[in-house]
Amino acid sequence: MGGNIGIIGIGIMGSAIASNLIKAGFTLAGYDIDPQKLKVFVEMGGKPTSSCQEVAEEASVIITSLPSNHALHEVVSGQKGIATVKKKDLIVIETSTLDLEAKEAACKVLKDIGIEMLDAPLSGTGAQARKKDISVYSSGDKKAHDSCKPVFDGFARSTHYIGEFGTGTKMKLVANLLVTIHNVASAEAFVFGMKSGLDPHLMHKVISDGGGSSRMFEVRGPLMAEGKYDEPTMKMELHQKDIRIISSFAEKIKCPTPLLSASAQFYTAALAQGRAKEDTGAVCAILEQIAGIKRG
What fold characterizes domain 170-291? Predict the structure, then answer.
């Protein structure tokens, strides 16, 4: 695929994507509303821009990694948004976990002016993304998806074409439902083991090698073993947004999610204790308090 690649949103996930694409030899133009994140992007070897409009002017493919529905609206339809540049050969890869309605609205705005948008959320944490250990759930126009395959290969371990626009988000919600539950299950297992007198580091090593393991136990287990969550791969406040999206969609399609509901209260408790900026593995600290465990 020829042409430059653009990235809008250079947070935990966006910066990992950018770093891997630059390492893969792509030329990247980027934008973020946070000047500090742009500074880090420049240090990686990326070219900073002053707006989403400028990214769109320079790129043939734009990757968006955004925190909210409002952010997507501003990036697409804002005063200096992508839609101000009417390029027929432009493709937008939307990787965020957002409400499906927000993505569909953005897709329509762009499609009306000849720009294709792929709904392509990612499965994996920021730490996994840095190691290029994430999966892409791509949906939308098949021709656009196929043309972006080299880009996906530049930052992801695997890419799955799911089908029509929006099915990528639906698959991502399934993945996030499991992540939410498995994360709390891992925390519960650590607390159970520590309460019984087991060393948490030994637990992580042994359980990771057996049938009781899960990807979340392997990925967040080291944080839970250390009891340190101040270098987040997924911030608690952002995951709370994901839980809201899953719950809202489940309500819309009238599907019971009892284990999600049971798990959600521990994330809410973490927010109530001022852990919004910490990694979601901090649900382990909440369960430790309930169990009366005091470390250090």
Answer: N-(1-d-carboxylethyl)-l-norvaline Dehydrogenase; domain 2 (1.10.1040)
Minimal CA–CA distance to 66: which of 54, 76, 79?
76
Per cent of the chain over pLDDT 90 is 95
Domain extents in the chain: 4-164, 170-291
- Residue 1 pLDDT exceeds 60: no
Q: Please give the average per-residue pLDDT across 209-214, as a whole number.
A: 96
pLDDT in tens, 30-66: 999 999 999 999 999 999 999 999 999 999 999 999 9
